[in-house]
Amino acid sequence: MADDAGEGEQYGLLLYYKYASVPDLDELVSFYQSNCSSLGLLGRVRVAPHGVNVTVGGKLSSLEKHIEAVKARTLFEGTDFKLASSHQPLNDRVAKECGFTSLSVRIVDELVTFSSHPLLKSPNISNAGRHLSAVEFHSVLESAGKILEESGNDNEGLVLLDARNLYETRIGKFQSPDVETLDPEIRQYSDLHSWIDDNADRLQGKNILMYCTGGIRCEMASAYIRGKGTGFENVFQLYGGIQRYLDQFPDGGFFRGKNFVFDHRISVGSSDPNILGTCLLCGCCFDDYSARCRCAYCRMLVLVCDNCRVDAGTYVCELCQKHGKGGPLVSAVEDGIPEESLQQIDLKTHPCPRGIGKRPILHQTLNAMLILRVSL
Fold it and tell me: Is 320 a catalytic residue?
């Protein structure tokens, strides 16, 4: 679904990453600043000693010129460029939050932050799990009782490991009746290594199929798992992530719901109309994050349907409920939330969408709201 981007030209989005040794960080930064600026591209470019991670938007013709310029550099040989036509940002708030109001080119230590503190042994990206194409990944799930020939472990099981955050898996995930799916239910990617450590017994000796949005998070996480040694060798990752899978299987295949994306599209779905997500408050089918509702404690995105959403609302995500509130509310001033928004919601029977009518809010739903100005 494409909109025009000035003078009849279509607007588009380009996403790609590349793990490779960068010989001159400053030179590569200068290239991106010059090239993207001249083409009018906006978005995020992250350059690290071990590669780049890029999400930019602009006219499709400009994005195609950018790809050609990048391909001319030997560093990017074999890069998977994900180019798609798209609507422009829905509003300034979404555009700003997703980084599409300016061009940001920065040098970083890591393309994706795998841990918020130094690890005893950092993952060796060259030890990442073997790539499976979308067709290969689908085939494995289709014949889940059969083990990959390359694994050599005929008696071992198969598990699906989702490397994404909870707010992403809420609205879409792979589901296969014959394969156990492991959802770490993490707030952020830097929590994944701790989950892997704590659940090593669920992974050891298994054939592990990993997936994420576009593939980059599986590179590091799969290398971390394989680095654990004996019993952790058989790790496979979906090449190009969910995005490439949906390109290959537009009806969704084994993927249910929508694919959360870190740009102003917010999510991308298949032709399957079924909704996997549910409203935090009333439990109705809902998967639209465009209102950008967030947990008052940890700031993780939450799903709150149109009828349940209150302009003055403050919400508490399921993880904060499960593990305790974890601390005082995020400062309204620091987070840019109007002070008047932190107030008690009227805990009454309220209308529920999609023809369900009115019903009382259950006790556990009241806990989900917890609109209390507490002093901890």
Answer: no
- Specify if 270 maps to a domain: no
Based on DSSP, count helices (H) and strands (E) in the chain, helices before strands.
11, 15
Residues 92, 132: one domain? no
243 part of a folded domain: yes
Same domain, 137 and 222: yes
- Report the pLDDT averaged over residues 228-244: 95
Place of tokens 């156990």: 180
pLDDT tens-digit readout, 169-219? 999 999 998 898 999 999 999 999 999 999 999 999 999 999 999 999 999
What does the alpha-carbon distance between residue 303 and residue 293 come to, in Å, rounded to a whole number? 7
Helices (H), 91-240: 92-97, 134-142, 166-169, 192-198, 200-203, 216-226
103 within a domain of the structure (yes/no): yes
CA–CA separation, 213 and 200 (whole Å): 23
My answer on whether 132 and 244 are in the same domain is: yes
- The answer to whether 89 and 43 are in contact (CB under 8 A) is no
Domain containing residue 132 = 125-248
Strand partners, 165: 186
Task: Let me know whether 167 and 224 are in one domain.
Answer: yes
Pairwise CA distance, residues 235 & 130, whole Å? 7
Span 50-72, pLDDT tens digits? 999 999 999 999 999 999 999 99
Judgement on whether residues 285 and 212 belong to the same structural domain of the protein = no
Give CA–CA dist 51/20, Å, rounded: 5
pLDDT the model gives residue 91: 60
Q: Does the model's pTM come out above 0.85?
A: no
Q: Decide if 118 is inside a domain.
A: no
The SS3 call for residue 173 is strand
